[in-house]
Amino acid sequence: MLKINETAPDFTLYSTAKQQITLSSLRGKQIVLLFFPAAFTSTCTKELCFVRDNISTYNNLNAVVFGISTDMVYSLVKFKEEQQLNFELLSDYNREVIQLYHTAYETFNYGMKGVAKRSAFVIGIDGIIKYAEVLENASLVPDFEKIKEAITR
Length: 153
Description:
Blueprint: E1 12-15, E2 20-22, E3 30-35, H1 42-53, H2 55-60, E4 63-69, H3 73-83, E5 88-91, H4 96-100, E6 104-105, E7 115-116, E8 119-123, E9 129-134, H5 144-152
Parallel strand pairs: 3-4, 4-5
Antiparallel strand pairs: 1-2, 1-5, 3-8, 6-7, 8-9
């Protein structure tokens, strides 16, 4: 698992806006990465809608939020639209970033392999990890208070 004070692994993924997002190009901004198992599932919807409803907290702290899953961009576009999410979702369809961040289930529900574990990382303006939480139980959600605390440090 990645640890606090380590450099966040760089990556480039496609967003729901069909733009490439490269983590290192966002240096100077605080980043919240929320890995989630799958669009359209109950806990993932609950988690991301909570962020949607509280996006002003992150905006006021000058933090940019990204949701990341192994869903295809097209699925994430529909999910974002249906849930009226006000932040970008990124597709790790090739499962490269979940490996870099050590946040992949070997086997998930129904025998699916290589699905993202629900996890949260806060990356500081210098590209250093300020918070890391990887949940083994997909029915739990990250500790949003601790995420907020990490952003303000």
